[in-house]
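Dear support,

I submitted the protein below through the web form. The confirmation email said the job was done, but the results page showed an empty box. After a refresh the structure appeared. I'm attaching both so you can tell me whether what I see now is the final result or a partial one.
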Amino acid sequence: MGKAQKYVLLGDATYPLQDWILKPYQEDENLTHRQLQFNYRLKRAHSVIENAFLRLKARWQILLKCDDCSLELLPTLVLACCILHNVCEAHDNPFNEEWLEGTEPTELPKPSQPAPAAMEDNRAEQVRELMCQYFESCGEG
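What the results page shows now:
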């Protein structure tokens, strides 16, 4: 789109819109087709992320019981599992669907109340609009 963009995190409607947090447009009858498409794509990306974390936890079930390791070790443990997981995925190491039986999708912690409008960054709307335009230029899907 002619503008360099930073990486962004995906958030839901409870997060404040920031130039580093993408969140969907508020669902109402006034959304344009482009905005609805943006929300749809954001939901799809979120489900891909959830599935990736589910597979990571299923393959490396030590991540299901991290509550018994020290906080200092935890980042290294998670990083090691991510690296090993990516190596397995890159080398087509088969994923055993039975591993999923012991793993339930968990709701990630998130704010319970929508962020106040004062926390929203006006510049972030430009980022969301650029992403919205980009998704539109990519076509349906």
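Response: this is the final, complete result; the empty box was a page-load delay. The mean pLDDT is 84.
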